[in-house]
Each structure stands twice: as structure tokens, then as C-alpha cells.
Design goal:
- The chain is of the alpha/beta class.
- Helix content is 49%, strand content 12%.
- The strands form two sheets. It has a seven-stranded parallel beta sheet with strand order 3-2-1-4-5-6-9, with helices on both faces. Strands 7-8 form a two-stranded parallel ribbon.
- Helix 5 packs parallel to helix 6, helix 6 packs parallel to helix 7 and helix 9 runs antiparallel to helix 10.
């Protein structure tokens, strides 16, 4: 009886921890970032003028990092730099306005300039955070313009920037790419087919890059967040959606990168459960998403809760 009691207790404890999880179990086992991997290291962050990119910059600055922040809007970058210097006076912050769709020649110049900012070390960490995402729509309603815009930023620009920066890292024998992917890059994402496809492409490229270059000192961490509370979704009715804060997502991303984790999932339930099902029991996971798909697209059109388990029962409106 004692053995049965212990087994039942452990099972209940596991179920409780999983039900209240905010990420995969490997990530949850790492409680703090490694400070020595941050202090005086150079972090280049794209999409750093707002959202998670801006928060990453602020958190890294507080931990002693040197920063290069990039985005298309130079005025917004200057605002972020002013805030950083106000709160963290000694922090070294360089701004590098950049458009990921500007072509290889322009991106090559951006890489050369980034490397010149801190010539003694170069870029230690490249955080690919910039992304393009349109409002949710069905897979067949995606326009050619939306398809091209999404892939130009999320895939082609990000990969080109990596190709151009990697040789500098290889020459030094060290470097780390942190890729802000998505849960949509691990599971079907009804209403986000093209965005999902772009994140699947990123996952494939960067996992392959790591396998080719890891023995030459190049690390890769792929971060797959689920629904995150950002300024972008503040206008949508998300009161019934359980979203992780941008601050927590950024904190967990830094922990994952400094511990050298290869891939991490950041999300509350039920998205985390779906990710596990698709990864380890794909027949069940894909069946579940097939049941949800049509309802989720309709819920998105009504600006309702697109992450609710009620979608499985055909309830499309936000509760």
C-alpha cells in the first residue's frame, strides 16, 4: 500500500506541475541565467525598438551586457537607448537601424558595422527577434503580398543575416544564435498558416546550422513561445486568454540562451499540452488540431479567444 500511495502522490505531483507549467521541463529546471555568460558580452538584438526585443535589451543591460539594438525605426531605437542609459548608466548601447528586407549588400554592411562597434570581441550573441505577422486568416485567403512579406522578414532576411555574421563567429571560434521562433513553428496554427510555415522554416534551418557548426564553437537556441501578452494583442479581446507576460518570456529566453539549451518551449496551458502531444504523440496531436482548426479561424475573425479548450467543443466566441 505504501508503494501505491507514493506512486499516486508522485503522479498527482507531476500532473500539478504540468498543469501549472510555463515551459518545457528542461527549461523549468534552470532557475537563473548564467551571469558570466552575459557580463561584458555583446548581444545584437533585432526588432529591439518595442515588444519582447525592447524588454530583452532592458533585462540584458541590467545583467551587464553590451548591446547592439536594431530595428527599422531609428527614432524608436534612440528612445530605447535613452531609457537604457537612464536606468543603467554604465551600459554600452549602439543603435544600428536595419531593414531585414533591404537585400544582401545592405545586410552585409550592417554586419560589418556591428562587428566594428566592439572590435575586441565582435558579436557574441545574435538574437533574431524581428518578425512579421499579419492578422489571423485562413490558409487559402492569404495574399501573395502577405506571403512574400512574411517570408522576406521571418525567413530570408534572418537567414541572410546569419550567413553573413557566422563567418566572423567561426573565425573567433565562438558565437551563439538565439532564434525567437514560435509554438506555431512546432504545431499546426489554424489561422496563421503562412506565419507558421515561416517559423517551421526557421526551426529547420537553425537546427541544421547548429548540427553543422556546433563543433566549431557555434551555439544555437531556438525559442518557441506560445501566446504572449504584448502591445500588439492589447487591442484584441484577450481577457479570457491566459498569456504569459513579455517580461517573463524575455527572462526565460535569457536563461535558455545562457545555459546553451538547444530548443525551449515557453507557454501556459493548453498550448504547452498541444506541443507535447504533437511532438510525442503526433496522431493524437494532429487529430486534436483538426478538431479545433475551423473553430479557431472563426474565433479569430470574431476577435475571440483563439487558445481556449472550448474550441474543441465548437464554441467559437470568447467566453
Amino acid at each position: 500500500m505504501l508503494v501505491v500511495f507514493i506512486c499516486v502522490f508522485l503522479l498527482l505531483l507531476f500532473l500539478f506541475k504540468f498543469a501549472t507549467a510555463y515551459g518545457d521541463f528542461t527549461l523549468m529546471s534552470k532557475k537563473q541565467p548564467k551571469r558570466h555568460e552575459i557580463e561584458d558580452k555583446v548581444f545584437w538584438i533585432t526588432g529591439a525598438s518595442r515588444g519582447i526585443g525592447e524588454i530583452l535589451a532592458k533585462q540584458l543591460a541590467s545583467l551587464g551586457a553590451k548591446l547592439i539594438i536594431s530595428a527599422r525605426n531609428e527614432a524608436e531605437l534612440n528612445q530605447v537607448r535613452t531609457q537604457l542609459k537612464g536606468k543603467h548608466a554604465p551600459v554600452e548601447v549602439k543603435i544600428l537601424p536595419m531593414d531585414l528586407t533591404s537585400g544582401e549588400d545592405s545586410l552585409r554592411k550592417a554586419v560589418e558595422k556591428a562587428e566594428s562597434f566592439f572590435p575586441d570581441s565582435g558579436v557574441n550573441y545574435m538574437i533574431h527577434n524581428a518578425a512579421f505577422e499579419r492578422p489571423k486568416t485562413s490558409a487559402i485567403d492569404v495574399t501573395e503580398e502577405g506571403l512574400k512579406a512574411t517570408f522576406d522578414v521571418n525567413v530570408l532576411g534572418t537567414i541572410t543575416l546569419t550567413r553573413l555574421l557566422a563567418p566572423f563567429m567561426l573565425k573567433r571560434g565562438r558565437g551563439h544564435f538565439v532564434v525567437m521562433s514560435s509554438a506555431a513553428g512546432k504545431t499546426p496554427a489554424p489561422g496563421q498558416a503562412v506565419y507558421s510555415a515561416s517559423k517551421y522554416a526557421l526551426n529547420g534551418y537553425f537546427h541544421t546550422l547548429r548540427s553543422e557548426l556546433c563543433q566549431k564553437g557555434i551555439g544555437v537556441t531556438v525559442v518557441c513561445p506560445g501566446p504572449i501578452e504584448t502591445s500588439k494583442n492589447s487591442e484584441v479581446n484577450v481577457s479570457s486568454e491566459k498569456r504569459l507576460s513579455s517580461e517573463r518570456c524575455a527572462e526565460l529566453t535569457i536563461i535558455a540562451a545562457t545555459h546553451g539549451l538547444k530548443e525551449v518551449w515557453i507557454s501556459n496551458q493548453p498550448v504547452l499540452l498541444v506541443m507535447y502531444l504533437v511532438q510525442y504523440m503526433p496522431s493524437i496531436g494532429y487529430w486534436l488540431m483538426d478538431k479545433v482548426g475551423k473553430n479557431r479561424v472563426e474565433a479569430a475573425a470574431q476577435k475571440g479567444n483563439t487558445y481556449s479548450l472550448s474550441l474543441l467543443l465548437g464554441k467559437k466566441k470568447a467566453s
